[in-house]
Amino acid sequence: MKTLQINFYRSTAMTHTPLLKKCLFLLSAFLLITGNALADETYDPDTYGPEAPIVWEKPARATFDHKIHTMDAGLDCAACHDDLFAMESKEESKRETFTMEEMAQGKFCGACHNGNDAFDSSTQCASCHFPPTEKIVFTQPVKTVVFDHSIHTGKAKLACESCHKKVFTMKQGGIEAVQPFKSENPAEKRQYLVDLHKKYCGTCHDSSQAFGYLTRCTVCHIGVKGLEQKANGTAEKETHAKKNS
Predict the structure, then answer these.
(1) Domains 46-127 and 136-244 share a fold
(2) How far out from the chain centre does Cα 111 lie?
């Protein structure tokens, strides 16, 4: 016990030595100066590129932030211009070759976003692209089926690549290119619908990962009346009317 007390008093006394006080003062001053320098650093467009993010509308809606790549990641302008991208704003959107397929071959963003230097261009889609905000209503191969991206990417926290490209193509209207079933045989029609569900939504909606595709049908299949209500903007009004009645 006596030894512990002596060590305690010695350690306490050391914190009050002039040398230690001086070191602590210098360290505090350094941290204060460094912090103020970082806080006062202003964004220089001549060094880091345009401050406002660039938003492309063609060939697909996407955004690019110079600050993340230059000021944060330490790249200079010559890392991308002019070998990968023209210096003129949005010049690439005029090219037919400005596609994800080209990026997968190491062109444009894919020169760095290859899974080694930076995340692969086929992943983390929402880092650059904007998920659709409006509900999609399919008319083919089955009529009046609604899909809401916000439920899947927001509430369920799924990444875009969870469905694209293995289950659904990224191209709008791709699923509607599937030919509708034309047989009048009930058994064949039923089997066609089962196979269709398994191939697409049923890959997750299997009663294990999400509710089964043979249950809660009206969550997605809104029917002709539902389609009319959506088109007229009356669906929400009617729902509230039923709750209040």
Answers:
(1) yes
(2) 20
Quick: pLDDT tens for 20-68.
666 566 666 666 555 554 444 688 999 999 999 999 888 888 999 999 9
Tell me the per-residue pLDDT of 123-171, one tens digit each, with 9 for 90 and over.
Answer: 888 889 888 888 888 877 777 888 999 899 888 888 888 888 788 887 7
Q: How far is CA 53 from the centre of its chain?
A: 16
Structural domain boundaries in the chain = 46-127, 136-244
Predicted pLDDT of residue 236: 44
Other CB atoms within 10 Å distance of the CB of residue 84: 15
Which residues lie below 8 Å from residue 45, measured CB to CB, with a gap of 6+? 51
10 Å CB burial of residue 65 (0-12, 13-18, 19+) is middle
Rounded to 5 degrees, what angle do the CA atoms 123, 129, 132 make?
115
Q: Is 77 helix (H, G, I), strand (E, B) or coil?
A: helix
User: pLDDT tens for residues 81-110?
Assistant: 988 998 887 788 788 888 888 999 999 999
Query: In a 3-state reduction of DSSP, which class is residue 243?
Result: helix
Tell me the sheet residues that pair with 164: 168
Residue with tokens 């006596």: 2
State mean pLDDT over 202-221: 91
Which tokens in the block code for residue 13?
């006394």
Q: Which CATH number fits domain 46-127: 1.10.1660.10, 3.40.1190.20, 3.90.10.10, 3.40.50.1220?
A: 3.90.10.10
Overall CATH class of domain 136-244: alpha beta
